[in-house]
Amino acid sequence: MKESSRQKKGALRDKILFPFIITDLLIVLLSVAIIIPVISGVLKNTLKQKGLYIAESVALHSLEYVLTENQLELIKVLREEQELHKEISYLLITDLKGKVICHSFKGGLPMGLEKANSLGSHQKNNIILLDTGKYFVYDIAVPLTVQGVLLGSLRVGVFNESIPRILSKIIFMLIALISLAIFIKILASYWFTLAAMEPVKKLQRATEAMMCGDLSVRVRINSKDELEELGNAFNATLEKLEQILVSKDELSREVVERKRAENAALAVNAKLEQNVEELAEAYAKLKESQKELLQSAKFGAIGQLASSVAHEVRNPLAIIMQSIEYLDCKVAPEDKEIIQMAKHNIQRADTIVATLLDFAKEKGLNVVPVDINSIIEDSLILTHYSNREGKIGIVKELGKDLPQVLVDRQKMKQVLVNVNLNALQAMPNGGTLFLRTYLAEFKRLQAGGENKNGDQPLPVKKAVIIEIEDEGAGISEENLKNVFRPFFTTKEETMGVGLGLSVAKNIVAMHNGLIEIKSRLNQGTKVIITLTVKEAPNGKEEDIDC
Amino acid sequence: MAKKKILIVDDELDFLKIVKLNLEQTEKFEVLTLSSAHELISHLHSFKPDLILLDMVMPGIGGIEVCDMLNDDLLGKTLPVIVLSALDKVEDKLLAYKKGIVGYLTKPIEKDALIAKIESVLESRFKR
User: Fold this and answer.
1) A445-453 long-range CB contacts below 8 Å, 24 or more apart?
2) Which candidate from B15, B22, B112 shows the least CB-CB separation from A315?
3) How many Å lie between the alpha carbon of B127 and the closest alpha carbon of chain A?
4) What ipTM did this prediction achieve?
């Protein structure tokens, strides 16, 4: 870095110096080109003038002697004059024709000199430059006139060497001056680079430091000139830069903070979303298992409970039974009736347990296509015992060629048995039991024993209807509402527990059928069971809304 | 006629008591009651019953396990077993029959029905 800066420094100096030197040289050349000829010209003129003056002065002095033709005195004047002025090489006096009358030469007159110069036709001064072989002389010819009468000429030879000498002196001086000037300039330039450039150097160093990242640098320039101003501006700029950087740092820190916060928020958000997802999943699973649980609760847990309850209850019942039978041998004949009552009630309790188990079991339907009439017949056989005395007449109006329905034989038998029993028990003093089956068409078929709200209209369906009608005491409107409820019964305890119809309703519901009861007090009751034709119960778990 | 020996296994003590009374009252049977099957095999060999009445649901060793124990015993596997249980589910019955029982009666049961079943099994024993 330093090398180049030195170079650059030098470059600046050289840039300044170089033109100056070039200009100096040009000036020198120009001077030489202009001044020299001018000076030379001036010198020449001066010389010529001097020569002319001398010539005229000598001419004046020598006139008298020319008239008198006093050669001796003439030579004396000439020599005196020559002594006086060192520039004079020789002095000549010529007559009108140009023939040398008198000269200053110690020896003889040099050859050719006589004819070298003469007054022109105008009889005025004439100056020519002569080359004597050794040196140059200006031969100045001046007319000698007395009262306007030309007598001859005076010729002065002035050395020319003094001119080159002077010129070379001048040139030398010029060169010396110029060299001095150049030298001074170079010195000055070094001073310039050292001193005047110092502020620039400072600025340069400060800038370099700034580039390396140090913004705390400042320059101190007291040069009381534009560089000082520049220095101040530089400082101000750096000041501003520092501030900007500080605020930039703050800004970027803020940005980083914000970014971090944003990322954290995003992460939290992502986590939240994940949690929500998991939650939704868990909720779905929960709902699922709740549903399952509900279902299994209905049929599994309850079944389990029912099983264990049944088991727990049956053991004591068995013990009681055996105990009662044991006592049977020990009691008096009139008390045997009591024993029988006890046994009967044990059976009753067991039946309740069994029904409860059955009620809770409900695993599903074992459907097969059946002829409903055959089940009617079977149920009659099962309930025959209740009519063993024959008090009740059975009237069967069973439809012919009824289409088969998909039912669980066992369960449907149970339904019919329950209903039949109710009917028979409703006519303790006799009557007629009507059993009817027939085909019907329905626009609506609803699952469940009772009408539900919000029915959806279904297409026309065929259904098999079973009617079981009795001529019994009938059921009051009040009781009709509750007739399907579990354990609801108007019978005496010996006759039933009140589960028959609720079980029947449940079974019919499982078949997607319908069971309705119509009754008029003291006239009779009709139970109507509707079963759709060849439609499999869809196995949906219906709510037992008994 | 010699009294037939009946071994009853049931965790209900009252039940064991009353059934033993009822059976022995007929003068036809000699009854040994066990409230758990822990000592079953040793009692089996010492008592040498003609028939076993077995409850299904018992704490510790259950009815099915007892059937396995009997099937593993030289004497045990020759003896007829009638199950007398409060469970009446079809699966339970099937399971028991698979173990080789000859009868499955559900509680509560009338004394006469029980005796009739026992006698019927003992009679047909000779036909095995």
Assistant:
1) A445/A512, A445/A514, A445/A530, A445/A532, A446/A514, A447/A509, A447/A512, A447/A540, A447/A542, A448/A509, A448/A514, A448/A542, A448/A543, A448/A545, A449/A484, A449/A505, A449/A508, A449/A509, A449/A514, A449/A515, A449/A516, A449/A546, A450/A484, A450/A545
2) B15
3) 30
4) 0.82
